[in-house]
Amino acid sequence: MRLLGIVGKAAFLVFWLAVLANLLEPFAYPFHPLINGVAAALLLLHFIEMLATGARLKSRPSPWLDRLQVLLFGVFHWHRLPVAIKTLN
Question: 30 in a domain, yes or no?
Answer without folding.
Answer: yes
